[in-house]
Amino acid sequence: MKKLFLYLLLFTGLCSHAQFGTQIFSKKPIINLENFDKQRIHWGYFLGFNSYDFKWDYIDDPKVDIEVKRTTGFNVGLVGNLRLFEYLDLRFEPGLYYTQRDLTFHNVEGTLADQQREVKSTYIHFPLLLKFSSKRTGNIRPYILGGVSRSLNLSSGFNVKDDNITGQRFRMKKWTNFYEIGAGIDIYFEYFKFSPSIRGIFSLNDELIRDNDPNSPYTSNVESMKTRGVFINFTFH
């Protein structure tokens, strides 16, 4: 994710430099898509990457906590934008998010297979966001956004009866509520608007389904397990 974030910054910087260069060295800078943001409603789509994690809270302080190994997943979805005021928009961005987290339970005795669990998740994500944009400068317009969202985890294992003790899949609740904050930049080209952005999401509810055994070494000491993550999206309008 650090590399992806660096690539995003470099790419945005190059685009910004090119756009500002046009404004500085041209007597009459070309303003692309001058009236684009005056539309009441417009649509787009996004592609991107994600990195999900878990935030653990324990009942008793463990000697060694649960280790989470994050992987890079991918995102794809649609964007619907409603203009409320000159600098304020309401956005709905339904998307499909695929990710995997690998858990290691250091307090579980046994083989490596007993200690490790794969958490593969496929989310259908429904965010409702407010976008606060700055004044447009040439073909550049930074913005920040924030809001709430709800996700359906298609790979939650909610209906699976077997749990960690039997060596089966790690179980989570189907629905999760989040709040989100992020920032990005709108770059106006001749025929489309390109918007790279970075966003953090934070779960509002406990997602863990406890094992059937109340003394399970996997879940008995867990007070709450909440998802958090980072999205890097590239949006085209």
Distance between the termini: 25 Å
Structural domain count? 1
- Radius of gyration equals 21 Å
Oligomeric state of the chains in view: single chain
SS content category: mainly beta
What is the share of helical residues? Answer: 10-25%
Write down the CATH class. Answer: Mainly Beta
Main beta-sheet annotation: 10 strands, antiparallel
Number of DSSP-assigned strands: 10
The 3D shape can be described as: elongated
Proportion of residues in extended strands: over 45%
Tell me the CATH architecture: Beta Barrel
Following the backbone from N to C, one meets helices and strands in this order, namely HEEEEEHEEEEE
Stretches with pLDDT under 50, minimum 5 residues: 18-27
User: Within the CATH hierarchy, at the fold level, what is the topology?
Assistant: Porin
Number of helical elements: 2
Mean pLDDT: 86
Summary tags:
single chain; 237 residues; mainly beta; Porin; ten-stranded antiparallel β-sheet; 10 strands
Notes on the structure:
This protein has helices at residues 2-25, 112-115; strands at 41-58, 66-70, 73-85, 88-92, 95-105, 116-133, 140-153, 175-188, 193-203, 222-236. It is mostly beta strands and 237 residues long. It has a single domain (2-236), classed as Porin (Beta Barrel), CATH 2.40.160. Strands 1, 2, 3, 4, 5, 6, 7, 8, 9 and 10 form a 10-stranded antiparallel beta sheet that branches. Strand 8 (175-188) and strand 9 (193-203) form a beta hairpin.
